[in-house]
From TrEMBL:
The lineage of its organism: Bacteria, Pseudomonadati, Pseudomonadota, Gammaproteobacteria, Oceanospirillales. Pathway: Purine metabolism; 7-cyano-7-deazaguanine biosynthesis. Belongs to the radical SAM superfamily. 7-carboxy-7-deazaguanine synthase family. It holds the Pfam family Radical_SAM. The gene is queE. Homodimer. GO terms for molecular function: lyase activity. Its EC number is 4.3.99.3. This is 7-carboxy-7-deazaguanine synthase. Binds 1 S-adenosyl-L-methionine per subunit. Binds 1 [4Fe-4S] cluster. The cluster is coordinated with 3 cysteines and an exchangeable S-adenosyl-L-methionine. NCBIfam families: queE_Cx14CxxC.
Length: 216
């Protein structure tokens, strides 16, 4: 298996239940819900994506010809000699590439394995923390996850559509402008998400705190 990685970096998880937790992010190239090209955005299933996932030219990106090679590359980004290792596979859509070989290679290096997925593809065995973030009209095939993190509002994906998915945590994440690296949290979408959570207390609010803080 060859893995195509756009970028890899060490930062704090900005969103969801693990907000504030140090992690190596491994961002795979490619997605099944948008080509990543601006000209295709309006016709895509997912139209608000904030991420460049084309190519392998980002920081610590590249093509890796084995699970062992990519796992060593990720380990080299963790502070030397430190434990509490956490990797988050994202993208693009990580479940297009993540397989059991790579999960096992990360476990062998004492990493906890987190995944950020759109939920349209079956997940391999061994993931320690699965976050599913449904998109537009797409079909979510994942039936249970640790965290459902729905970008809000989406006209084709209201929270009620996902009541059948078993999730330990349910978060609404206000939709931010796709081209903004820095945000202030008091947007109309945030106000709407707050109102929805207050009326439907099984949902909690999460924010893209890395964009408030200005970190990767
Ligand atoms: C770029 S996606 C990659 C992982 C996967 N393809 C997915 O969609 O979950 C990472 C996270 O960013 C969120 N996201 C993308 N664009 C966003 C935006 N404009 N506002 C808020 N969250 C956004 C996604 O919902 C997802 O939780
Ligand atoms: N700090 C930080 N936290 C994140 N959580 C999910 C992210 C992603 O793009 O998948 C992300 C990201 O890009 N940066
Ligand atoms: S599914 Fe995820 S990576 Fe794909 S376009 Fe949407 S937000 Fe971006
Ligand atoms: Mg991001």
């Amino acid at each position: 298996m060859t893995y195509s990685v756009k970028e890899a970096f060490y930062s704090l998880q900005g969103e969801g239940a693990h907000t504030g937790r140090p992690a190596v992010f491994c961002r795979f190239t490619g997605c099944n819900l948008w080509s990543g090209r601006a000209a295709d955005r309006a016709g895509a299933i997912c139209q608000f994506c904030d991420t460049d996932f084309i190519g392998t030219d980002g920081q610590h990106g590249g093509r890796f010809h084995s699970a062992e090679a990519l796992a060593d590359h990720i380990l080299a980004l963790w502070p030397e000699g430190c434990g509490h290792r956490y990797v988050i596979f994202t993208g693009g859509e990580p479940l297009l590439q993540l397989d059991t070989d790579l999960i096992q290679a990360m476990h062998a290096r004492e990493f906890v394995v987190g995944v950020e997925s759109n939920g349209t593809l079956a997940a391999p065995e061994g993931i320690d923390w699965l976050c599913v973030s449904p998109k537009g009209t797409s079909d979510v095939v994942v039936k249970h996850c640790d965290e459902l993190k729905l970008v809000f509002p989406q006209s084709a994906a209201p929270p009620e559509r996902f009541s059948h998915i078993r999730a330990t945590h349910r978060y609404l994440s206000p939709m931010n402008p796709y081209d903004a690296n820095r945000i202030t949290p008091q947007s109309d979408h945030t106000q709407a998400a707050i109102a929805y959570c207050l009326a439907n207390p099984e949902w909690r609010l999460t924010l893209q705190t890395h964009k408030i803080l200005g970190v990767d």
